[in-house]
UniProtKB/TrEMBL annotation:
GO terms for biological process: chitin biosynthetic process. The lineage of its organism: Eukaryota, Fungi, Fungi incertae sedis, Mucoromycota, Mucoromycotina. SUPFAM superfamilies: Nucleotide-diphospho-sugar transferases. Residues 600-623 have a biased composition (Acidic residues). It is a multi-pass membrane protein. Residues 964-973 have a biased composition (Basic and acidic residues). This is chitin synthase. Residues 638-661 have a biased composition (Basic residues).
Length: 1105
């Protein structure tokens, strides 16, 4: 606000110091005894340096300190040929001939020359004029005004209003033959003496008393104007003249005939009204900025410029063997369920392959929309997704961005497949439910932590997955990995891109393809913005007011930055991020960095063969999907690419062979050939570590949660850029309530301003172009309000005063408006012309004056968050999710420290803990059944029909997959087992597996490199019957399920899944025995996700006696 006020002071006052006003001379200075100056019709001259070169200069130099106006009569402009209807002077013609006063003007001129003894006139020529200082004596030469205009003038003669009132307020009479009558009009002094003398007649009203009467036949000015001049001699008639509403031509006509000087107080203003160079330069800079911004935004629509600026192409994906996996991230709060349904419907129905995309929802608390009949938003989403399971997932803690008692948050994870219009897309949904303390409080939404916290859940989980062998993960991240990998069959490390859309934004069907193609085509991009348009622009007047601000923000501004090659803006409502990228520049687009079972197919002999490699492929067609299950052998994740080739089965050859998929086992070690971009630790630290300790950081972190991410990305990866894809179009549902719109704009203005301040601070590390772009945006944001206010003043002053300086400014900005309209007309967007008129009349003062002032007024109110969509409590503000309520903080301080914290462990530790908990649950079930056992009432039960939870089972759960290596099958050390027996994973404060020899991910401690056995799951275990009662099943490895299609095979077995699954106990036929005496058992889980289709399969190998 201070900067805006200073800028207005500059425009209004400081620029006048740079004006070039006409030089003025005081009346006393010109007519002093020692003056060498002369006055002619209000102009001060000094021609002594010209000498007596001409008769004009000789005459003027002979009469210093004298008014020589009578020798240069202005009334001679009324002279015209007898049969010529018009005057040579345009101004005279406009005020006389236009109003049919030519005859009266001719009579006035004839009377003046005939009755005035100071002028001698004959044969249509003025022969002589009055002598200087003697008004009624002729004999001095007369000069034409054209001769006067050829020579320079020193300036204008300046009068004081008091001087005019006391000395120039009457017509000549016998007692004062040299008297004069002046009036003040505007800033001009008018000598009306000659006009009133010739337009009136002297009438004797009594002895010794005379008066004047008007001669209408000689009155070429209107009667009321003539009366005004006659009755106000020596006065300022400006107000009276304006109240009479005369045509502007009359004012110019009065100046043309009677000008005799200027008023002292208005002399400087007169100069600035004609020319103000500083003001023109200031307004011209902003005009050029707006013009450049608009032209660049519209020029980017040209096809050849789009091909040059936006390198996306339709063939980028066709060159790949498989399109990259893409995460479609949708944060939700209290949006109406119908709008959210439209959002994920549009995402599910995009033309991107269903098997290469994953919907990821994060419900930011247990909020309830006002339009959903009291049902919580997350429940509405589950119903829309078709999730029908009645099992309640376990609560998983994680460290949030909350403060104090809100630091630890709890969440539930749901997973499944969403079917829409023939598409079947996997989804994950995280619901933040909050702690028990939050659920008991009724004044705040439990679990709410904000959008930044929601993004960190997804980005932090993907960053942890980049190195599962060393990274410790939270219980929530373990649950996400388990659901994503084991249930949905997607390796989260394969997710290369993440599209972020708001819950009220619907995308076009080609959006994902276009944005992925853009990121694949340009390796230097780490994020790309899309083009957002309003979905309901004509719903009411409030939505119409937002059309052009959205256009300027989401298209024009981004296109302008894209042309400069320095986009620093991130619109978190519609953007795609690059999570990781290939390190080697020469890596082709079709290379795949994470192992996939579909990549490696080779032929093998039947079970009777003596080959050491034992593979099996089972396929089943069910009309909709083909189920493929695979086993894998241990091999290095960095095997030579020449060994990874496809062997297709040829009919007629090797009839006894089966086609199998030979993949590499999942490796938990970090990928050395990929580089983390948006999920690098530097980026996540920059996004999560800053704390809102000042008003500036409060506005940055609490209001600009997603905008701040752009600064973090550019600071962490200065060699990468942010792009803009104008053809990736999404439609957002804009607020229909004025106060919701106001809240959204205030939040946007405050966050944008403070994020720009933060970005300028670090722009020196990114590049000079970014500094220039951010600085111009900041100046635009700060000075737009005073510029708009001043422009309104310019238009008002122009229509009132018609000053030249304002006419030029008003004309320039009017041309800018016309250019806008021209662009819409040539694109045949005539509806936009109407919207633009509404924008100019109503949106500009609201969005550029009212909202900025209100945003500045509420800058210290960043803790309050106004919901754009009404909750069950209606529209209103609330505390930001990470901020602790004062009452809540007091309760937290009164409570004793309970030492609650979120334990982070490696994946293997979680698997051991899950196995122990599963064994405990089975033991409790056995004890419960034993307590109810009353003896046998039927025949013996065959061993094969024992339930999977029977305590007499000859099988001991397999060791965790992440713990196994070559011939290293021990579950854990005895010390670890004792720890797990007595302690819970949630309450532990340190990693119980501290021995380096027990680290299953360190290849240096692996005794054998190529001999461990295959399996199929990494965080679940199998419990079934076996002929070995006291031995472990052989070690297992696994392969991520990242096939081109999600395919499954039903096969009944005795299985137990660890997470959100159903236990089955059904008899199964004995498994086949291979040539080495081992059984191959295929286990399949029918996970209770509300569908009849199974969700994942497992293999385990048994030894057979």
């Amino acid at each position: 606000m201070l900067v805006s006020a200073l800028f207005c002071f500059w425009l209004e006052f400081i620029t006048t110091l740079f004006c070039d006003p006409p030089q003025t001379f005081d009346f006393e200075t010109v007519f002093s005894n020692h003056s060498e100056l002369s006055s002619i019709n209000g102009q001060v001259i000094d021609w002594h340096h010209y000498g007596n070169a001409t008769a004009l200069t000789s005459f003027v130099n002979a009469y210093p300190a004298t008014d020589l106006s009578a020798n240069f009569p202005l009334f001679m402009q009324l002279r015209r040929p007898l049969y010529q209807p018009h005057y040579s002077n345009r101004i005279v013609d406009q005020c006389i001939a236009r109003f049919n006063m030519s005859a009266q003007a001719d009579n006035w001129l004839h009377y003046k020359l005939e009755k005035d003894s100071g002028y001698l006139y004959g044969d249509g020529t003025l022969l002589s004029c009055p002598l200087p200082g003697h008004r009624n004596k002729t004999g001095a030469p007369c000069f034409d005004s054209t001769e006067l205009n050829r020579l320079p003038k020193n300036g204008a003669l300046k009068y004081e209003p008091e001087l005019i009132k006391s000395n120039f307020s009457s017509l000549p009479y016998k007692g004062a033959p040299h008297a004069s009558a002046y009036v003040i009009l505007g800033n001009s002094v008018l000598d009306i003496t000659d006009y009133l003398l010739a337009v009136t007649n002297i009438v004797k009203v009594a002895k010794g008393a005379h008066s004047r009467s008007f001669a209408l036949d000689r009155m070429f000015l209107p009667l009321d104007l003539t009366i005004l001049l006659f009755t106000n001699m020596g006065q300022d008639i400006t107000t009276l003249f304006e109240n009479m509403h005369y045509d502007d031509n009359y004012k110019q006509c009065l100046d043309q005939f009677f000008f005799h000087g200027v008023v002292a107080a208005d002399a400087h203003d007169e100069g600035c009204a004609r020319m103000n160079v500083a003001l023109w330069i200031t307004m011209g800079i902003f005009l050029m900025y707006f013009l450049l911004k608009i032209n660049l935004a519209n020029l980017t629509r040209l096809p050849f410029l789009q091909r040059w600026l936006f390198k996306s192409s339709a063939f980028a994906l066709s060159e790949r063997h498989l399109p990259p996996f893409t995460l479609l991230f949708v944060p939700c709060y209290a949006e109406p369920s119908q709008i959210i349904r439209q959002t994920f419907d549009s995402l599910a129905r995009t033309s991107y392959p269903d098997t290469r995309k994953l919907l990821f929802f994060v419900c930011d608390g247990l909020a309830t929309s006002a339009t959903d009949g009291g049902k919580e938003t997350w429940r509405c989403i589950l119903e829309s997704l078709g999730y029908s399971s009645t099992k309640d997932p376990p609560l998983r803690p994680y460290l949030s961005l909350g403060r104090g008692p809100r630091r630890i948050n709890y969440a539930k994870v749901y997973a499944g497949f969403y079917e829409s219009a023939g598409n079947r897309v996997p989804f994950l949904m995280v619901v933040k439910v909050g702690s028990l303390r939050e659920s008991e409080a009724s004044f705040r939404v439990p679990g709410n932590r904000g959008k930044r916290d929601s993004m960190l859940i997804a980005l932090g989980f993907l960053e942890r997955c980049m190195d599962l062998s060393h990274h410790r993960i939270s219980p929530l991240e373990f649950e996400l990995f388990n659901q994503c990998y084991n249930l949905l069959g997607i390796d989260p490390r394969c997710l290369k891109y993440m599209l972020v859309t708001d819950a009220d934004t619907q995308v076009k069907d080609d959006v994902v393809v276009r944005m992925v193609a853009r990121l694949e085509a340009d390796r230097s991009l780490m994020a790309v913005n899309g083009h957002v348009r309003p979905a309901n622009p004509e719903e009411n007047i409030v939505t119409m007011l937002q059309i052009f601000p959205i256009y300027l923000s989401f298209y024009s501004g981004l296109a302008y930055e894209a042309c400069l090659g320095s986009i620093a803006t991130i619109h978190g409502g519609f953007i795609m991020y690059k999570l990781w990228d290939d390190k080697a520049d020469e890596t082709p687009l079709h290379s795949v960095k994470w192992s996939k079972t579909s990549d490696d197919i080779q032929e093998m002999e039947d079970f009777d063969s003596s080959s050491d490699e034992e593979e099996e492929e089972e396929e089943e067609e069910d009309g909709l999907t083909t189920t493929t299950t695979t086993t894998t052998t241990a091999s290095s994740r960095h095997m030579n690419k020449s060994r990874r080739r496809r062997h297709h089965h040829r009919p007629g050859q090797h009839s006894g062979k089966k086609t199998t998929m030979k993949g590499r086992p999942i490796s938990l070690a970090p990928g050395h050939e990929v580089q983390a971009i948006c999920i690098s630790p530097t980026v996540l630290r920059g996004l999560a570590v800053p704390r809102a300790t000042t008003m500036h950081m409060e506005n940055v972190l609490l209001l600009g949660e997603d905008q701040y991410f752009g600064s973090v990305l550019l600071r962490s990866h200065p060699r990468y850029r942010i792009g803009f894809e104008p053809e990736a179009i999404a439609y957002t549902t804009i607020p229909t309530n004025f106060f919701a719109m106001q809240a959204l704009q205030l939040r946007s203005l405050r966050s944008t301003f403070h994020n720009l301040m933060e970005f300028i601070h670090m722009a020196k590390d990114v590049g000079f172009k970014y500094w220039i772009t951010s600085f111009t945006k900041l100046i635009d944001l700060i000075l737009s309000m005073p510029i708009i206010v001043y422009l309104y003043g310019v238009y008002i002053r122009y229509f009132v005063d018609a000053y030249q300086v304002y006419a030029i400014i008003a004309g320039a900005f009017t041309g800018l408006i016309i250019l806008h309209v021209f662009y819409f007309v040539i694109r045949r967007q005539f509806k936009y012309v109407v919207w633009f008129i509404i924008y100019g009349l109503f949106s500009v003062p609201i969005f550029n004056i009212y909202f900025p002032v209100l945003a500045a007024w509420r800058s210290d109110d960043a803790y309050q968050w106004y919901d754009v969509w009404p909750t069950e409590r209606g529209y209103g503000s609330r505390l930001h999710g990470i901020v602790t309520d004062p009452k809540e903080q007091e309760e937290h301080e009164e409570e004793e420290e309970d030492g609650e914290e979120v334990v982070r462990m490696r994946l293997s530790d979680f698997e051991v803990s899950e196995a122990h908990q599963q064994a405990q649950r089975e033991k409790e079930q056995v004890e419960l059944l034993d307590a109810k056992f009353n003896g046998f009432t039927a025949g013996y039960v065959h061993a094969k029909n024992k339930p999977s939870w029977s305590s007499s089972s000859s099988w001991i759960p397999s060791p965790p997959l992440a713990q196994t290596r070559e011939r290293h099958s021990r579950l854990a050390s005895e010390e670890d087992a004792r720890f797990l027996t007595n302690h819970s994973t949630v309450s532990s404060h340190k990693n119980p597996f501290s021995s380096v020899l027990d680290d299953p991910f360190d290849d240096a401690y692996s005794a054998f490199k190529k001999q461990h056995r295959p399996s199929h799951s990494q965080s679940s275990y199998v419990n079934t019957n076996s002929h070995f009662a006291d031995s472990f099943a052989p070690a297992m490895t696994t392969e991520p399920i990242v096939q081109d299609d999600f395919v499954y095979k039903e096969e009944s077995s005795d299985t137990i899944s660890l997470t959100n699954s159903v236990m089955e106990s059904q008899p199964s036929p004995p498994p086949p025995i291979d040539v080495r005496g081992r059984r191959r058992i295929h286990h399949h889980h029918a996970q209770d996700e509300g569908r009849s289709a199974p969700v994942h399969s497992r293999f385990v190998t048994q030894h057979h006696l």
